[in-house]
Amino acid sequence: MYTKNAEPNICLINCNIKAHRDINMLVSPQGFNTMHISDKEFGQKNFAVTPVAFLIDVVAKTKMVASAMLDKVVDSIQKKFGFLVPVIAMVSESCGHKQVLFDRGALDYVSYPLIPAELLHRLNCLKHLLTFRQDAGLNNLGNKKARLASEAVEILRARLSENITLAELSTTLSTNRNTLAEAFKTHMNTSIFNWLREQRMLKGAQLLAETSLSVVQVAERVGYTDGNNFSTAFKKQFNMSPLNYRKARQCSATALYGKNNINRLSL
């Protein structure tokens, strides 16, 4: 059973040696530890601690193979724990079947080669989600605040490109600003607009890596009306400009897969 005092775990499924090493190097300083098993071993594995998340490597898998792997893992998680521990799919940047992964039970995905800020942000959010999901029975007030934070996240994720205000969000959720801000801070461990800024930067990074949109177009997709403001915020988050980030990601993908294999991985 996962508790606030237990050391959080990330269970890696079918990860190659390099991916395992890269992930471990990123998450260990943040207080996470990793374990690795294959999807075939998963059914026989006994867990003393409920993992924060399962991260399954489907980087070089076809849509059919990735779907079958996720079906098997998600079904086993439900049987083992009685509820669905979050599953993250690790995919290539050029993966063309991400929606299928969501349909098969993946809560989210991370791109490989890894974006450190993306991976750590996903895991920290999931750690808090799991803690409060298991603490939800403590009192009705806690349940209400947890639901309020969860509903706010869903709305904000769906409206990243919009300039939504705290007052508007509060009205949509039939609450007041102070209650919403407090609930979000408690359950997400950050303020609403810090979380929103991070999500916009992560989405911007994804669009830069996976599309040919201009920086201005990317900025508009993530809620910035001024491309310069987006570039300034992006450089603060990733320590490089959007264009340099795009070049670096393209180079790393080519080095990892080879120019001729990048398109094949999205089939």
TrEMBL record:
Superkingdom of the organism of origin: Bacteria
Gene3D superfamilies for this protein: Homeodomain-like (1.10.10.60)
This protein's record includes keyword Heme: no
SMART domains, A to Z: HTH_ARAC (SM00342)
Occurrences of domain HTH araC/xylS-type (ranges): 150-248
A GO MF label: DNA-binding transcription factor activity
Keyword Glycoprotein listed: no
InterPro entries assigned to the protein according to its UniProt record, in alphabetical order: Homeodomain-like_sf, HTH_AraC, HTH_AraC-typ_CS, PchR_regulatory_protein, Tscrpt_reg_AraC-type_HTH
UniProt KW keywords: DNA-binding, Transcription, Transcription regulation
Protein name: HTH-type transcriptional activator RhaS
The species this protein was found in: Vibrio spartinae
